[in-house]
Each structure stands twice: as structure tokens, then as C-alpha cells.
């Protein structure tokens, strides 16, 4: 199994070593696009010890409107309160920032959404669990169905026990920005969906098939193996070799979720000038 030495990726063994560390918060992000209740049910049945649950639809997205795609970014204040309630705190002069470990069972599809969101909110101390929940189970590490208590954020106004967002606007682009910048020299537009959807051969989710003109296709599942382990950093660099000299990389998928897996991969490859088109294809076709 590949082992990656990077601040944004933790191994099951490393997480086990810190399972009771009060400075570490574990978040279960399991979800199914086909059954929106499945992830929470799986969590309630069994999860990594001490893990909290955040739901893609209810916690990591906001309500769908005419524009913005199928999974618009969540309300920042609401998400910040939820993070505070589960013990994710920002760094202050008195205390260190909480280290967050996110996991799923879908090759980082949903864990990377939380990983990206936290960094978008200025919280860099976040990593995904290599191998996900299945890898944890296969290692024989502890699971249970105990639901850890959440705090009432309103009762903890202390800055030392709150999540204070510091939005990084440069990490995201919208429809207008993509439209005006995608064909500029030095800008690469990456479509993260599987090839048949990129080519418009099939479209199981959105009303219109195809891709944004000028986009190149890098399917998000190509950065990990079938068991949910990320390929080595050397392989990640090889994977992105053709676009490594881009001045700007705009990344999208169907709704701004799995594109975050590619952004994670790009970071592992040493390419940090990435921007998420949060609304993605489902937003693009709404215009």
C-alpha cells in the first residue's frame, strides 16, 4: 500500500497513534449520491472511534437554487458554528489550531470536499485519511457506534474554543470568471468527471451532456487505486506533467465535489495555483 509523506494525508497508523489526542478532530464524510441517507446510517452503525459526522447535503452544501450547481457551497457562518460544536478551533495567541482528519469510503470524493472547504475558510491543519474507512477496517483498528457529544456554540463564545473563518477568495471561481479566463494563455481548465461524461457519451445526473469548451479531462478517480489509497507523490507529479507549468488551473466536476480530489492531487504534485469552480458543470449549464 502506498505511503504518502505530506501534511494533507495521514495513514491509518498515524491516526491510530493520535486517536485520543484532544488536538485532533476526526470527521466521517461518508455519503452516497444515490441514497442521501446511507452515509449517516453507515456512521450510526459503525465509525472510527471519536469521529463526528458531517453530511454532504446538510452540512457541506447549501440549498440548491437556479444557479450555483447541485452542491452550492455551505453557509459560512452555519458551517463555522457546526465546526465549533465538534471541537474544531482556529489558532489563537493562546492555543494551537485543531488538526482535522476527514475520511470517507469513496476514494476521497467527500472527505476532500471538507478538506477543501476548511482550507477555503483559512484552516490549513486538515488532512484526508489514506485508504478511508475500508483501510481502517482492514487494519483491524477500533470502531464503535458511540456518537460523541456536540457543544452548543452559543455557550462557548471564547475565541479559544471557536472556529473563526478567514475566507480565501482566491481559491474559488464562479461562472463569469471561468467564462472570461478559461481561454487565456497560461490558464488550464480541468474537467474532473469520468471520460464518458466529459465526452457527452453519457450523462446520468445533469440535464445536459458534454463539457465546458476548452477543458481537458483528468478523471478524479485516476489519482488513487481501487482500494482508496492515493498514488505516490512521484506518480501524482507524472499525472499532471502536461499542465504543471500553467499559471492558473481551474478545476471543475459535476457539482464541485469530486473536483476537490483533483485539487488534493495537484497539491500533492506541488501545484498550488488551483481554483475550484464551485458550481461546476451543473452551474455552467444553468446559464
Could you explain the architecture of this structure?
This protein is of the alpha/beta class. It folds into two domains: 9-161, Oxidized Rhodanese, domain 1 (3-Layer(aba) Sandwich); 169-284, Rhodanese-like domain (Oxidized Rhodanese, domain 1, 3-Layer(aba) Sandwich). It has helices spanning 12-17, 38-45, 76-85, 111-120, 132-138, 175-181, 195-198, 233-239, 259-268, 280-284, and strands spanning 9-10, 24-28, 47-48, 52-53, 99-103, 126-129, 143-144, 172-173, 187-191, 216-217, 248-252, 274-277. A five-stranded parallel β-sheet has the order 1-6-5-2-4. A five-stranded parallel β-sheet has the order 8-12-11-9-10. It has a two-stranded antiparallel sheet with strand order 3-7. The chain is globular. The mean pLDDT is 94.
**What string gives the helices and strands in order?**
EHEHEEHEHEHEEHEHEHEHEH
* Beta-strand content: 5-15%
Overall number of domains: 2
Total number of helices: 10
The percent range for helix content is 25-40%
Provide the gyration radius in Å: 18 Å
**Shape assignment:** globular
Enumerate the spans where pLDDT stays under 50 for 5 or more consecutive residues.
none
Number of distinct beta strands? 12
Q: Quickly give the CATH architecture of the largest domain.
A: 3-Layer(aba) Sandwich
Strand order of the largest sheet: 1-6-5-2-4
| End-to-end Cα distance | 44 Å
Under CATH, the topology of the largest domain can be stated as: Oxidized Rhodanese, domain 1
- CATH superfamily grouping of the largest domain: Rhodanese-like domain
What is the CATH C-level name of the largest domain? Alpha Beta
What is the average per-residue confidence, as pLDDT, rounded to a whole number? 94
- Structural class of the secondary structure composition? alpha/beta
The biggest beta sheet, please? 5 strands, parallel
